[in-house]
Design a protein that fits this description.
It contains 13 helices and 43 strands. The chain is mainly beta. This is Carboxypeptidase-like regulatory domain-containing protein.
Length: 827
């Protein structure tokens, strides 16, 4: 290296990489300081650092928590590519920043925050870019010397160590890697927020189906926003409008950027312990007060389930803005690293970290390219372009990836693909991977042709069937990418009756989700429509059933259903159903006398035939979805969800009743920073017609001591009925707002939650008279109400909740109160 390489037009560049001795792991947030100066910086996630100085200093000092102090004598002409190996201390000490005066940075940050509106990327009325993302899951602290035997772990270790000469020193074993390329569009008018996936690439293993669910760990956000979302929680941005209530700021060194602007370093730390806030550094352009780089860190005190810490960095570059005819800062690279807990810490126990214990690490890199601002494309042209790009043909050739990656793969990442290519021919490897995928997803695949499961519903128990056994199947894309044959079979040891369902789905368009399905089934009504709760047909519910009569219905049903994409936010559905309801509980109704078209006076029936046609529309902004078993599974959104449905009951076959139903509703998960979140669902509806009460609105009572946010937990099933109603479900997650103030509890990471549910309904005199021999209750002037207080996050998965019924305490089988459990994997 010559002097010209280390000397720029505006001074000297000092750069290098810091690693941990013994493991060669990159070290983030190590302090690099030029002795005798105010110049300092922190190393990035990959251990790299860069200092740009105008005056020469000959001594570089590196410090980091738990590592010995390191000093380097600098020589002019040899200040690039410095490699530093940090040696761990026997006893970790408090962090020391050598030679840096902690000059308060509040006054400078006040100016930066005051100018947020001038630098926030969201200020542009329209922009587009191409986004490239790669994600990796590694096992850390692997001892390659113990790779013995023929097991899956040993097989992967031996194969990978032959490909990567640094594997034994790095002690990393990559087990998942994926890439994605997408075009993103944003516009205020017309309102457009759209991402079109252009290409996907993964390892081609069965575990890809399991590990693709890790997308919740792939986050990037706008640091100019007040609150930054991580999983379901919110954290205070260092640029929050009220940042000084959460952060302490200190000025660090200054340096010159490549274009000659002065950059000011700002360090920030949380103001209080267990704050929902980051630690890190900002580099800010002193002329524009715009962020050029941010490096942030969250520790395990941030109360993130299963997560030990998170490192996140974001780099900005200058992009031409045609509206202002000048260069402006836009984010172009995001990197994150999520380190998971291990051992007893996974159970939420406050134990010291085992630094040598095996851990999982997720690494993510996102690079934006082809950024265009204020393009002013006509809405018709833009909408046409977005529609034209939509595709599900995401498999691309290797040449495509070589030509279109805006960020090249490292040697380490290339070796991951080589490792898997070597292992795919090994039968032992393929078998073990299928076992892992089965344990994680609940489904077992026979090649690319047939899938069975889920195992969560293989066995259950109820009073009518005794032990119930059930298994389902789906054909897979190896047979057809558009047509899916599916169904399940069930058998009860007590009633000795076979049940089941068989159906056919046809996916017209996967990108603009459009699907038609037809099915016929005969079974009890166990299966529910909620994607985030288990069917009632599982062993957990069987163990926590209340001591009340069994209240299921045996249903024979033929169903024709169509789901239709209308726009990125709107979907519609329509269905045509013929079914026979046969309740196993006490129920009877008066059928229609065809000669006079009125109900019989003293003739009663139990089996109720029904014919219905329904149509509904749903609005959900920025809702994430995924496709599983040819179904579009909703992963949720934090925007309000609005829906409206209409059902027409008509006379057909043995169905004798004509009626109309309408209902409208709204639900939302609403973040309430800094720590809380509110879920609510408000619905109202009306039924027109005189019909048996089972066809009116019957609020969902809970048969089990398993808490549900969609049911009335202390209400018995079929306890109430109404032909006009209003219902409200709420659950307030406090996120540790109270427990974080108690030293012992905050170490456990428990969180508080409160619930309140209410139902009001009324019934016309005609329906009251017609159903007078039926066994149900009417809601009076006061709505039914229940409330709860509970604790979640026990062992990171359990919740315990005390529900109390506030009125209608004398109804049959009413439960005044009770302890309800729950099992949820929340981050």
């Amino acid at each position: 290296m010559n002097a010209a390489a280390a000397f720029s037009q505006n001074g000297f560049i000092i750069s290098g990489k810091i690693t941990e001795e013994g493991t060669n792991k990159p070290m983030q947030n190590a302090t690099i300081h030029l002795k005798g100066s105010s110049y300092s910086t922190l190393s990035k996630i990959d251990g790299s650092f860069r200092l740009h100085i105008t005056d020469w200093y000959d001594s570089l000092e590196i410090t980091s928590v738990g590592f010995e102090h390191f000093t380097i004598a600098l020589q002019k002409g040899n200040t690039s590519g410095i490699a530093v190996n940090m040696k761990p201390k026997a006893n970790a000490l408090q962090e020391v920043v050598i030679g840096v005066t902690k000059k308060p940075g509040k006054s400078f940050m006040e100016k930066v925050i005051d100018h947020k509106a001038n630098n926030n990327p969201s200020r542009f009325r329209s922009y587009s870019y191409q986004r490239y993302t790669r994600n990796e899951l590694d096992i850390d602290h692997i001892d390659y010397e113990k790779a013995k035997g023929s097991g899956l772990k040993s097989l992967m270790l031996k194969t990978y160590s032959k490909l990567d000469s640094n594997a034994k020193d790095d002690k990393d074993l990559p087990i998942y890697f994926a890439e994605r390329l997408a075009n993103s569009y944003h516009s205020v008018s017309p309102n457009i927020d759209r991402e079109n996936i252009i290409a996907k690439k993964n390892l081609g293993l069965k575990t890809d189906n399991l590990l693709s669910k890790l997308d919740k760990f792939y986050f990037f956000f706008n640091v100019y926003d007040d609150w930054l979302p991580i999983f379901d929680q919110t954290y205070v941005s260092p640029l929050n409008s009220n940042a000084f209530s959460y952060y302490k700021y200190f000025e660090g060194s200054t340096m010159l950027s490549d274009n000659g602007d002065t950059l000011q370093q700002i360090r920030f730390t949380p103001l209080h312990a267990y704050e929902r806030a980051f630690s890190g550094t900002l580099w800010i352009n002193t002329k524009t007060l715009a962020v050029e780089t941010v490096d942030m860190h969250l520790s395990k005190t941030a109360n993130l389930n299963f997560v030990n810490d998170i490192n996140y960095s974001q780099d900005y570059k200058q992009v031409y803005d045609s509206a202002s005819d000048k260069l402006v800062y836009m984010p172009y690279k995001f990197t994150s690293e999520v380190k998971f807990e291990s051992g007893l810490a996974l159970l939420g126990l406050p134990v010291p970290e085992d630094k040598n214990g095996m851990k999982f690490i997720i690494k993510n890199t996102t690079v934006t390219d082809k950024i265009q601002l204020n393009t002013s494309e006509p809405s018709v042209v833009l909408s046409s372009l977005i529609k034209k790009e939509q595709t599900t043909n995401w498999d691309k050739s290797e040449m495509f990836w070589v030509q279109n990656r805006p960020d090249s793969l490292t040697i380490h990442e290339k070796n991951i693909y080589k490792m898997v290519d070597s292992l795919k021919e090994n039968n032992r490897f393929q078998r073990d991977v299928k076992l892992i995928a089965f344990a994680g997803t609940g489904y077992w695949d026979f090649g690319k042709y047939v899938r069975i499961g889920p195992y969560s519903s293989f066995v259950s128990r109820n009073p009518i069937e005794g032990w119930r056994f059930r298994t389902g199947f789906w054909t897979m894309p190896g047979i057809s990418k558009k047509i899916n044959l599916y169904g399940y079979g069930a058998y009860g040891t007590k009633d000795q009756k076979l049940k089941g369902m068989l159906g056919l789905k046809y996916v017209w368009n996967e990108a603009r989700w459009t699907k038609t399905s037809i099915s016929y089934g005969s079974d009890y009504d166990f299966i529910i429509d909620q994607d985030d709760e288990l069917d009632k047909d599982n062993i957990v519910n069987s163990l926590f059933r209340k001591n009340i009569p069994f209240t299921r219905m045996y249903v024979k049903q033929a169903l024709l259903k169509h789901e239709q994409y209308l726009s990125p936010n709107f979907t519609a559905k329509a269905s045509l159903t013929y079914k026979e309801l046969n309740p196993v509980f006490d129920f009877q109704y008066r059928p229609i006398n065809p000669s006079i078209d009125k109900p019989y006076d003293s003739v009663f029936a139990k089996r109720l035939p029904v014919a219905e046609a329904s149509i509904g529309i749903r609005y959900a902004h920025k809702e994430r979805t995924t496709i599983l078993n040819y179904d579009n599974i909703r992963l949720g959104t934090f925007s309000p969800i609005l829906y409206a449905n209409y059902t027409y009951g008509f006379e057909q076959g043995k169905a004798q009743f004509e009626y109309h139903k309408i209902n409208i509703g709204m639900e939302q998960r609403l973040r309430l920073p800094p720590k809380m979140m509110l879920y609510y669902k408000l619905e109202a509806g009306k039924v027109f017609g005189t019909i048996p009460y089972l066809l009116l609105n019957v609020p969902a009572g809970n048969e089990y001591y398993v808490a549900s946010k969609y049911q009335f937990n202390t209400m018995a099933p079929y306890e109430f009925a109404a032909d006009k109603y209003v219902s409200l479900h709420t659950r307030l997650y406090l996120g540790g707002t109270l427990f974080d103030k108690v030293p012992l509890l905050r170490k456990l990471g428990w969180r508080e939650r409160l619930s309140f549910n209410s139902y009001w309904g009324n019934m016309s005199k005609a329906n009251v008279d017609y159903n007078k021999s039926s066994n149900f209750n009417l809601v009076g002037k006061a709505p039914f109400m229940e409330a709860s207080v509970g604790i979640e996050n026990i062992f990171h998965v359990m919740s315990i909740e005390y529900y109390r019924r506030l009125n209608y305490l004398n109804n049959p089988y009413a439960k005044k109160d009770g302890i309800y459990v729950g099992v949820t994997l929340m981050f």
